[in-house]
Write a structure and sequence with these properties.
- GO terms for molecular function: catalytic activity; molybdenum ion binding; pyridoxal phosphate binding.
- Pfam families: MOSC (PF03473), MOSC_N (PF03476).
- It comes from Pseudonocardia ammonioxydans.
- This is MOSC domain-containing protein.
- The chain is α+β, with helices and mostly antiparallel strands and about 260 residues long.
- Helices cover about 15% and strands about 35% of the residues.
- The strands form five sheets. Strands 1, 2, 12, 13, 14, 15, 16, 17 and 19 form a nine-stranded mixed beta sheet that branches. The protein has a three-stranded antiparallel beta sheet with strand order 4-3-18, with no helix packed on it. It has a three-stranded antiparallel beta sheet with strand order 6-7-8, with no helix packed on it.
- The protein is globular.
- It starts with a strand and ends with a strand.
Length: about 260
């Protein structure tokens, strides 16, 4: 196995950037999900998991690192992330602030994604609050653990583009590798170049992969196929449709496109 592609998302729920290499520290991918939009009314982190309010974020793109992170709006305007509050509030129809500080216990709204598929993106559904970054130290706005991986075996089975699942690392698997093989990697050290990761959870899937991503149309199969073929127990969350794998960083360092991937 080897690394097929590497991805970083400087602003949570926006499209990100494809890179030749990533640097990892014990908090995850440096520069990943360092910014997020916060709903000024409720103080909740904006995420397209709640498509009724936030799906337009997936029409925006973010790139860069540190204070140089830039946001490209759907109309083509490019803005510094730290000064994009006004234009993003206008786009979303809700007042937001762009933040680099993840509050303790920060939460997002997460309606049941299968109900979203059944009843529509604008349906007024119950939206339980989910605390983010429960498996991540530091202040990045990741969903759970520091790093997210998915294999080409799983992507080929589902039949969607990798970017819909928003992984950091896409792993090429040999011909004949079963889909959802990531389930079998839990608890086994994962070595990528000089970096060691420890898998923590299968990745539960939400509404995000089914939504429009930039110019890409909706893709309901990105949820339906995992729901049909890979409902698994996710510790602390129940039995959920999953695709991919979360991991924590045991040994930090750089990883590069083409690096070998080994399972302990």
């Amino acid at each position: 196995m080897k690394v097929a592609s590497l991805h970083r998302y400087p602003v949570k729920s926006m499209l990100g950037e494809d890179l030749a290499s990533l640097d990892l520290d014990t908090h995850g991918v440096i520069g990943d999900r360092v910014y997020a939009l916060v709903d000024a009314e409720h103080g909740r982190v904006a995420t397209a998991k709640q498509p009724r309010h936030w799906r337009a974020l997936l029409r925006c793109r973010s790139a860069g690192s540190g204070p140089q992170v830039q946001v490209v709006l759907p109309d083509g305007r490019t803005l510094a992330a730290g000064s994009a509050d006004g234009p993003l509030s206008e786009l979303l129809g809700r007042k937001v602030t762009v933040s680099t500080r993840r509050a303790d216990g920060a939460v997002v709204e997460r309606p049941d994604p299968e109900q979203v598929l059944a009843q529509g993106l604008d349906a007024d559904l119950e939206a339980p609050l989910l605390e983010i970054a429960q498996g991540t130290p530091g202040g990045r706005f990741v969903d759970h653990s520091p790093v997210h991986l998915i294999t080409t075996a799983t992507l080929d089975e589902v039949g969607v583009e990798a970017l819909r699942y928003r992984p950091n690392v896409v792993v090429v698997t040999p011909p004949g590798t079963p889909a959802f093989v990531e389930n079998d990697w839990l608890g086994r050290p994962l070595t990528i170049g000089a970096v060691t990761l420890v898998p923590t959870l299968p990745t539960p899937r939400c509404s995000v992969p089914t939504l429009e991503h930039g110019d890409l149309p909706r893709a309901p199969q990105a949820l339906r196929r995992p729901a049909e073929r890979n409902r698994v127990e996710v510790e602390g969350f129940g039995v959920l449709p999953c695709a991919g794998l979360y991991a924590r960083v045991e040994t930090p360092g750089p990883i590069h496109r083409g690096d070998p991937v080994e399972i302990g």
